[in-house]
Amino acid sequence: MDPRFRHTAFLFVLALVFTVGLTFATVELPYLADDLLQGAIPTPAGDSHADELARTRTELFISHYHLRAVGYVCFGLMVSLIVAGFATRRTGLATAGALTFMLPVFAQFAGVMFFLAGLGLLNLLWLPVLDVSLELARLGLIIRAPYDLLIWLARQLGFDAYWPLVYACVGTGLLLFLLGTFAWLSARARQQPVADFWVYRISRHPQYLGWIVWSYGVYLLLLRGTYPRRSWGIDASLPWLVSTIVIIGVAMIEELTMRGRHGEAYEAYGRSAPFLFPVPRFVERLLALPFRILFGTDRPRRKGDVVVVLSLYAVGLIGASWFIYGNGMERTRKVLAPAAAVSRMDELATRIREEPNARTKYFIARELAAYGDPSVDHFVRLLDDNQAEVRVLAAQNLQDIPAERAISALVKALEDSVASVRGNVVEALGAIRSQKAREPMLRLLDDPEAWVRGSAMRSLAELGAEEIVSRGIEMLQDPEPWIRAATVESLGILGSERALPSLAERLNDEEAIVRRAVVIAMMNIGSTEARAPLERAAGDEDWEVRVYAAEALRRLSQSSRERD
Q: How many helical (H) and strand (E) elements, i.e. helices and strands, does the chain have?
């Protein structure tokens, strides 16, 4: 066999191994890793951000295992790798940083509700961002624009292009990566300083392009996840956007090195092949406009040029995400064209009534709520609609836009014949935190629907209604575990030391969810009388109860030292 053929075959097999590894990372590895991590690392059950109790449990878990420190250190290391890579032109460091920035995208494969469970543990890498707001992760949503446009065009033609787009992106990315790796290895084998053949004629950086296209396909793959969990709300668009911008910056830095090392040979190659992929000349000039404005050249001359321009692009794309996908358009319209905003709100309120699909109704209501306080009057009117699901939506959105002027209509809606309406109305009144709602809500402690009674108990606790303590102690004997747990939570919110003996008895409850709630309630009450019950809870058979008890004792001791 011809030695050259054997050598070429070996290089192709090597490139294929790299590509197969990337394929495995796409198709199977995330699910295997998720199963392994879920089995090996216990995490709290349930939705990590559903309500205040869930958020408290999440915070106690993070605090107990020092996960916040781990997340912040990891985030700092990622940023340090990127900064060091750009500062020293060691692009491998910056590439490593970019790839780790991309990892939270794979957290979307976690099929659980707790956002750090299973592969969701990768969300730790972005904890400094998520600590500010879960919504910040959506500031990269502009990357969906090409996908949304193609999906819309396909729908006009009568078909769903979702899966074809996913397969096209993942397949094209893998093919580019395979061909680019093979060509690069071939160039090294020939001792050719500049790879300028095969796929390198359509892209000067085919591996980077392959990675970007492949990872975009992975992002699209997760847009239609069906698993019941909260972490789908932690969007992966910003990690993908940051990672891609850094990869592009790495490619630009490498070009500076190649031009300095190979001079005219690389200049000639650069004139014959596009930077990442072929685009019309006017688009190329448009993309280079910041370089011309700031530095008077069509391309970067120094690494500082790359950092400045890509930072501007990042800010611009994040701003576009907020404006187009983050209700910025509605907010701007409200300020610049108030009459048009009123007309639009009227239109949305009408559509909520007329739309037959419940899910679509929900999204229309959220669009109306994005107008903030001016939308309150529309939701107040919707409380009188003859459709129960519309009244529920009105009450739910009034929880997010608490306004005193909605109290009268909400109090009236407490008489609604539909339990789900009454329950959401109670929660809306609780969000307003007005003492005017106190007396009407006390009557709902006798509501025939348990959920309504529980919601009333919680809302009254948030208003500081001490008169609920006796009723709460009675409800601790309810046969339903979730009612007992909700009552415990309410007594904890109220901070009633009078309820401590009854709460301590519930540490013997047969249901772990009740015992967990008791430990957190005792921590919220903050009385030294809770120390002995908490010490008993620290030996509970349920690991979550033990973790929360340990954290509660630590905080109780810290509070005692501060008082002393």
A: 29, 0
Note whether 183 and 197 are within 8 A (CB): yes
Q: What is the amino acid identity at position 138?
A: R
- What is the structure's pLDDT at 39? 84
Single-letter amino acid, residue 556:
L
Residue 440's CB: how many other CB atoms inside 10 A? 18
227 Rama class: left (phi>0) / alpha (psi -120 to 50) / beta:
beta
Cβ pair 88, 547 in contact under 8 A: no
User: How far is 350 from 346, CA to CA, in rounded Å?
Assistant: 6
Q: What is the 3 state secondary structure string of 10-55? A: HHHHHHHHHHHHHHHHHHCHHHHHHHHHHHHCCCCCCCCCCCHHHH
With 0-12 CB in 10 A as exposed, 13-18 as middle and 19+ as buried, what is 263?
Answer: exposed
The mean per-residue pLDDT over the stretch 120-129 comes to 90
Predicted TM-score (pTM) of this structure: 0.81
Q: Which two tokens stand for residue 66?
A: 């020092």
Q: Which residues neighbour 557 within 8 Å (Cβ) at sequence distance 6 or greater?
A: none
- Distance CA(36)–CA(501), nearest Å, equals 42
Q: How many CA within 13 A on the CB side of residue 510? A: 5
